[in-house]
From TrEMBL:
MDMPI C-terminal domain boundaries: 154-235
Residues of the Mycothiol-dependent maleylpyruvate isomerase metal-binding domain: 12-134
PANTHER family assigned: CONSERVED PROTEIN
Pfam families documented for this protein: MDMPI_C (PF07398), MDMPI_N (PF11716)
Top-level lineage group: Bacteria
Name assigned to this protein: TIGR03083 family protein
InterPro entries: DinB/YfiT-like (IPR034660), Maleyloyr_isom (IPR017517), MDMPI_C-term_domain (IPR010872), MDMPI_metal-binding (IPR024344)
GO CC terms, sorted: plasma membrane
Gene Ontology molecular function terms on file: metal ion binding
Stretches that traverse the bilayer: none
Coiled-coil spans in chain: none
Length: 255
């Protein structure tokens, strides 16, 4: 699963997304609900993302004793949750910069890039998606891709991570007794993927194959948010139940 972007681009995206998340969370207020994450408040969102930053940095440092539950609890109880969040983001960026390229560390997606690249990419997209959640809290509704102001190259890279790394895992719930294929096509960047869905793990092929049962298309930003279930802006052609199946079965949740 080669990344579409460089390490530096991922770190830049991580920093930018963190700034967007903080600004939107501040504007929304700590008790505001998060429409894209039902049941969460902004405090929940900030504590979760700050915990994940600390958890990722701990993996890169080889800190096997890191307590993610305690970290998230600390974020919820912080007198300045956004300041606590920023400290964790800065520490993660500094840790990524200091990590050797040949570091041995845990990764958890199929066909993942080397650990330093993996964690920069994963946290860039983790934070970007949760920055969209913060925007939804500020707006009081799901934002559009245009309102999220996503970089198209970053969005295409995130689609690739989702389709080749996440949904191909054995734990993915996207299954079908009747096999079918779906083409996902980003009209503005030219990227495309073909998903072969069966009663086993999804197989993703980079590129477009002929005669799929469904095609999901749109801009990279629209697809990125829609496939992560943060928007409903993709254009679905072919069998209508396939898009419904995606929305009900594809959930990437903290484990």
């Amino acid at each position: 699963m080669p990344t579409h972007l460089s390490f530096d681009r991922h770190v830049d995206a991580l920093a930018r997304a963190g700034a967007v998340l903080r600004e939107a969370a501040s504007a929304a207020g700590p008790d505001a609900p998060v429409p894209t994450c039902p049941g969460w408040t902004v405090t929940d969102l900030v504590a979760h993302q700050g915990m994940v930053h600390r958890w990722a940095a701990a993996h890169l440092r080889g800190d096997a004793d890191h307590d993610a539950t305690a970290s998230e609890r600390e974020g919820r109880r912080a007198t300045d949750p956004l300041g606590w969040f920023s400290q964790g983001l800065t520490a993660l960026i500094d840790t990524l910069a200091a990590t050797p390229e040949d570091i041995k560390a845990r990764v958890f997606l199929n066909d993942a890039p080397p650990p330093r690249r993996f964690w920069a990419r994963r946290q860039a997209h983790e934070t970007t998606i949760h920055s969209v959640d913060a925007i939804s809290a500020r707006l009081g509704r799901w934002p559009s891709a245009a309102e999220a102001d996503l970089d198209s190259a970053l969005a295409a890279d995130g689609i690739d991570e989702l389709l080749t790394g996440f949904i191909t895992r054995a734990k993915s719930r996207l299954r079908s007794a009747e096999p079918y294929s779906v083409v996902v096509r980003a009209d503005d960047t030219g990227h495309a993927w073909t998903l072969r869905v069966s009663d086993g793990p999804v197989v993703t092929i980079v590129g477009e194959t002929a005669s799929p049962e469904a095609v999901f298309s749109g801009s990279a930003g629209q697809l990125y948010l829609s496939l992560w279930n943060r928007a409903d802006e993709l254009t679905a052609k072919g069998r209508s139940d396939i898009a419904d199946d995606w929305r009900s079965r594809v959930r990437v949740e903290w484990g």
